[in-house]
Queue: 2 jobs
Job 1
Amino acid sequence: MKTGAEYIESLRKLKPLVYFEGKQIESVVDHPLTKPHVNSAAVTYDIAFDPAFEDLGTAVSHLTGKKINRFTHIHQSTEDLVKKVKMLRMISQRTGTCYQRCVGFDAINAAYSTTYDMDQKLGTSYFPRFLEFLKHIQETDEMIAGAMTDPKGDRSLRPGQQADPDLFVHVVDKNDKGIVIRGAKCHMTGMVNSHWMLVMPTTALVEEDKDYAVSCAVPVDAPGVIHIFGRQTNDKRKFDEMDQGNARYGIVGGECLTVLNDVFVPWDMVFMCGEYQFAGMLVERFASYHRQNYGGCKGGVSDIVTGATAAIADYNGAAKAAHVKDKIVEMVHLTETLYACSVACSAEGHKLPSGAYYVDPLLANVVKQNVTRHIYEICRLCHDVAGGLIATLPSEKDFHDAEVGKYVQKYYKGVASVPVEHRYRMARLIENMTGGTALVESMHGAGSPQAQRVMLTRQGNVEHKKLLAKRLAGIVEEPDAANEAAAGKEKK
Amino acid sequence: MKNLKVGVKYCGNCNPQIDGPALVKKIGAEMPEAEILPADSPEIEALLIVSGCPVDCATRPSYRGRTVVVGGANIDYVSYNVSQLAGVVIKKLREES
């Protein structure tokens, strides 16, 4: 296993092409725009060495029997699934933001079980190949970015129907040594400070789109790979300190657009190439694992938002007001609702043919659907209690300015016993965590709300619910369709 | 001649995606050599575990003998069409007897 410092040092050896505003970022470890995200990911490494957290932060590899960082583990039980959620909450409570590594964690778990099922059904040999890659990751503790979301172009058209065929990543050439892929992946969390990306299809596919059924591991600095770093709300504040709100760890996951310009991938790193029948399974498993996370990671983030709200109420002198207490109780209730659902989808997980464990996909999708709503409500309550200063505060430079600083400090003073800088810093933390980029991530990270509703439609078991209602209402339908299906009878 | 004693263990059926009792009834009808018994019968030779959905609560705590595990439309963790379930279970019980 690597420590956080060893992880950071290992990034210095990579040479990814990362651009921001037309200029290349020479070192993601040192550049103010990317450094906070590196720091955040480094926490996932350090927890594995801290006795207080190692029970959650580590696991025993089912492949080698060695102690490994949990982010490289394949879930072997429902206990593993629950520990994942607890680990994510614990890390979020320390970073207050995304630490990016769950995406690759979910990608390896989805690819593991899907390559196994694919080999069983089609006679391919992807699973042993994937195992070798997984062993390498467990041994080296390298970070993987899960690369799923394609640009998608016209959403009403399939990949092969797009005016530009590159709007979904696809295979453009193959030979006895490997394949060549072209396209791009959007919103790539943690990509610029990972070692690898695990490319996956973005949607279920049909035979006509089999060139788009591709999954493979690619070094982030492979020839032909270009990363264009995304803008964030207030990102130029990364050149300040106090005005960032969370200077050490930043906001969300340092997302980027990753362009794959005819990237060569050797066969031993290819885990799907043309097996369109299994694209949907890989997508669904990845999405469900990823949606499982959100009551853990957003639960931890919400713990901080709740704490910040209570603290600024103290600083404002409003903490004893009944409505403030009630709003903080509501924030706790919403946070624990998110968390409870993540624990539930984990506890209700089940074994797959590969032996790996999979979350309950229905409940995992409920987790994420709740996050698209409850985080907004938690942040709304926070804004309500904190006051308008979170959006109107003068700058850090004016706070410290020799001429006007005394006015800023005089007129932003709250309760007399609390230093004005504390109130300023807490307001900035709230601004950072509850608005702009951070809030949108709750809506669209791990899939937009409608994607979850599609899954809820498919797995809601409404026929069973209709049966229950009909039984109570005294309605007898003979024979019952569900019973027929279950018993394998032909419908009359 | 009934020469295979099969115990059956159901989950609590809180959210069933299949009708487990109907499935077992069909298996019993199509497998004349099988005697269907409660799961706790001491003489059983195989245990058919029937959970209404893939969460597969009936498997916990795990049974230490021969099993065929139905969890919704999965049999031994592999997914099938519901119309195939009875046939696949019978085949597995016969193969393992």
Job 2
Amino acid sequence: MGGVRLSGLAMASALGRGTEAQLAGTLAGVAAFAPVTRFDVAGHRVRVAATLPDAGSLTDELATAIDEACGSAGLSGAHRAACPLVLAVHAFPNAPRVSADRWRTATELAELLAIRVGLGPVARVYTSACVSASTALADAAALISSGRADRIVVAGGYLVEPDQFALFDAGRALATDGAVRPFSTGRTGLLLGDAVAAVVLESATGGRRRTGSPLARLTGWGRAGDAFHAVQPHPQGQGLAKAIGAALRRARIGPGALGYINAHGTGTPFSDAAEAAGLRQALGPAAAHVPLSSTKATHGHTLEASGLIELGITVLAMRAGKLPVNAGFLAADEACPLNVVHAGPRSVNSEWALSVNAAFGGACTALVVRVT
Amino acid sequence: MIRTTIALTVLAEARWPEPGDDAVPQVPGFVLSSFNPVIAAVADRCLRRRYGEPPAPRDDGSGTALVLVSASGDIASANHVARTVDDGGRVGPLFFFQSVPNSIAGYLAARWRLGGPVVCLCPTGDPRADGLAEAELLIADGDAAAALVVLVEQSGVDGVRATAAAVLVSGGS
């Protein structure tokens, strides 16, 4: 069976710690947003986010997630030592305040993590905003499927902190009514959320020698650009459609085979409409039928970690045979003619699911997983 | 550690500064820091050496990726935002748009009609080798036919401009 094996998975978000908490939270469709107490938000227009109450430092949380993912994949110390790490983060945590003598880089964080959890060298560090983790996953899958690597740990994280919060608030990107309502009428923007996640990706033969069935197979991936604007998405979702097309071709499936789409769905008026247009362009009539939800409505926008936490939730949902709820949904928006899962979790019969992400710069990614 | 499989052909190269360069041209919508203007200047120079004026020919541009490689990132903007937050001030909205390197990549992609993947990396070793390895992966994997790799670093010292290099590569001979 084709594709790259996803054989280890660990996640934490405001929905809780561990995979079961992510699945339970997204199936229930209960949003985890609350007033921010981690730092002072008194001067801001919006004062809520989805934060994990007992979150440690980003470094500690990433180390825990990587360690758990390796453990769930059954990697020995020798396996770990030979396994490269790929990391997706914004920057070294709190770099402006800890770099008085020498600027600390994101790669230094990756090197600290690799040493701490006993992994091999750092292969790549992605700072591509909201497609950092999904690009890391696509590239890792490409490296493994082409025989250039046998196993790669991909990790990513973002914990809500004052600088990005202030920037998103200043950019008027945050929802003003305390809720994220992807693809719904009345949506006013995104809300930020904590997430750390890690996966172990392996070649088809490498993983089989050690473990039984993988959690899922990453069978398709695609990355493309809008070539449209510095920060706005192409209104017809040009790059997203291209990325989805590439992912489906690699997975060797048509749009009708998909049983679920985990959308980027930030809850931003213009971006959700552009995403819907891109889905229609790539999937044709199937875009109106394949069940879809954005789990950002429950765990928030986790920025550089988005691709990992959302792929992980997609895998868990497909394994459970139930699809996450698009929380916050008020009513259908004619600009987003999609089959949004909003009344409650739905069952799923297909083996294939699609997870898409987009970012500033018109960067778009698509990942296809198969769960058997 | 991770092997490459295809040879890349260098189509054009550029640096900023080159002899005779003075002030870096400003880019509309990007403020305070030299990080983004220097990326735009070196990318424009490299692409002009290949294509003349923007945009790139459709057949070339639609499959061209943008790979930005920087260990420092935009230190000047990050420090400005942190100082403003610590002082209880309000961050200017333009800093939201330039808070990630994707934005200047998107500006360039729109200007030159480059429709390939947009990838930003912090180098794990030699930045040029890292950038070319990413370009090679995207081309070998089929999501790009060519890539503009931009290497940029900022010292963090007030008044010292960022420096950059760019190389346009393709997978064909």
